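Fold this sequence, please.
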Amino acid sequence: MPLKIQVHSQISQIDAQQWDALVENHQPFLSHAFLHALEQHHCAAPRYGWHPQHLAIYHQNTLIAAMPLYEKHNSYGEFVFDQAWSNAWTQMGLAYFPKLVSAVPYSPVSGQRFLVRNVALQNMPINQTEDYSVEFLTQTLWNAALELAQQHAYSGLHLLFAHAAQQTWLAQQVAGQPFVYTRHDCHFHWFNQNYTGFDDFLAQLTPKKRKNIRQERQSVARAGVTFRRLNGHTATAQDWEHFGYFYTKTFTEKWSTPTLNTEFFKAVARALPNNVLLVLADKNGQCIAGSLMYYSDTTLFGRHWGCIEEVNHLHFEACYYQGIEFAIERGLQVFEPGAGGEHKIARGFVPVETQSTHWLNPSQIPPTLQADLDRGLQGFIKQEQQQNQNYIAQCQTHNPYKTT
């Protein structure tokens, strides 16, 4: 039977169990529950510029491939900054929005963008002459997304923070094609070298960095701050109320929009209790700060933080050191603490290049402008990549680890 390709305007239209069967390593951000909570609690919503357009491929009513996909009317919450591109479109009298984006809203985390797994094809009566390989289904998803962009006259299609294997595959498929670009950025990740404990991790750092981290942790302890590590089972409704307030306070003080809300945090905790790490800081019987992280089978992801009382080094303890300890205890391989921040280097994180793929719709660009626009974008991409490489090289000169 032929495959059926369908676009869903709500994740709830897709069977949760079948969707989750395509997600590797129980990655929480790609889970049906997480994406559903974003939509149900009006976080990934039209009022914030997010219009779900999730792609699904079915074989005999069984989901065998999917792509989280959104029609976007702004660039907020993407973490791949394209304001310069948007301004260029405007100056040429063109419409940059709406566009199509495959990403997890408000989450600069690496992961699948093509949800395809061999396991989805097991025990299914598929004709052996038909090619439903992972590569074929991945190509079908990409082609379907391009066709959707062309049908609705979107300015382009953007895949953000696809994990390395899918990014490499995509780069090979689009090599040499016009109006397809790869952008580069830098995040900072911590890697678990089979550490037996936090002191074992510290032992791998240079003496100065090791001493500084110990002093920072001691400073927080002397201030009378204690910590609770909670998950979806142990965190109470009051704990989530505290964290929701911290989150909102952080965003409003930075003149930004707190698009998430307490009910969203609670919903994810109920649905994914074993993928949540909520670190709360207490002082004199009062909860004064918190950081929220999520984790898969292999990776810890730092996401949000907030406080009502400033304590020296509290941010580093709640967001980094508590997370590193947890990752070591759980045997997690990587800790991705979020975008930006070379201050992470001194705390054991190292620079990692991230990539994203951007296809621009030629039908939305007048032929008279195409050559100049492509030349300008090629120059922009080349310069950005060189700057990113220089930045990573500079960061590596501050490597906190002992060299041999």
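The mean pLDDT is 94. The chain has eleven helices and 15 strands.
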